[in-house]
Amino acid sequence: MSFRQELNKINFIRFLSSIKLTVVCLILLYILTFVGTVAQVQYGLYQAKSRFFESFFFLAFGFLPFPGGQLVMWILFLNLMTVALTTIDYAWRNIGSIITHFGLLLFLVSGYMIMHDAHESFLNLREGQASNVSSAYHDWEVAVWEAATHKDPLTTSRQVTSIDTRQIKPGQTINISDLNLQLTVKEYYKNCEAYSRPVKNHILNASGITEIEKADLLKEPEKNTPGGIFQVEAKDGKAVDVLLFGGENGPLTLTADNKTYHLNLRLKHYPLPVTLKLIDFKKEEYPGTETARKYQSLVEINVDKIKREKLISMNEPLRYKDYTFYQSSFSVDRFGNESSVLAVVKNSGWLMPYISTFVTFMGLVIHFIMVALRLRKKVY
Description:
The protein is of the alpha+beta class. It has three domains: about 5-115 and about 350-380, no CATH class; about 120-125 and about 270-345, no CATH class; about 135-270, no CATH class.
């Protein structure tokens, strides 16, 4: 008895390779796609995606456990894998079906890679401004760095220690060995309101905020503003409490152990492998309105001191290695100065969906051609 026949004798393997299981998974995916799309109105895009598509289970109607998108996709992946191991007839006459089957498996693998590897951020540039760092849309970090010395006042680079706020909780102590500092989390809220009220014990803050109060999380995470109170202890043993709020325009300056440090609660920063400088931002409006018809950014790309220019428009992104820069939006300050907002997507598996589509398409083409040839042979 062959290995495949031995596998088919196992009840669980037969269940996993069942066509009925495939149909159930496809029906569940249809339901999740419909419900998740409609739910974006109530929960917002991010929470709807997290609840319905990235979860293993969620509570339908508030009490009924229902499989989430990630669980259904894993079951479908196992279903296709067991079919490949136990059911498919690997004969030349079935080559089209075999290629199509593995093309579908590639789709699921690419989806997993994108979900766990890709991240989105944005780059906001004024004309003449250059940057090689993008910012997250709704993930935050506590950034700590030492102030520039008088010997090097014009430096444009600095060594920053960043602490992902998703990992911190009250009572936690974080050692920043590079700067000989110890950070203790006394309070932290993912969304809060800040106030400047007269208080007896003033906490050190960059903009005069004296208190923060916890607020309800909003359904659109980019609208939440975090804040926290931290105790900073230097090597000399002196400790001071500081209040950091995500809505502040600049960092807090702190002197400890005869050194000056900056602390900032900010949107998470991502270093880019390329420096972009906005040379010119152009916007065209519909006649007689202030509504933008199209807008585009002429940028200078600097990689290892090699420079070139590229026009990024709404339908023509810039691609560099695993990064794609899209023309996302723009902003205008109170002085009329325009800024271009570029969406930045890092995705090392960006080719996988294209490869999966090509493999699946070619498998279907080959399958239909071979079916047509077999029918023609029967006729004649």
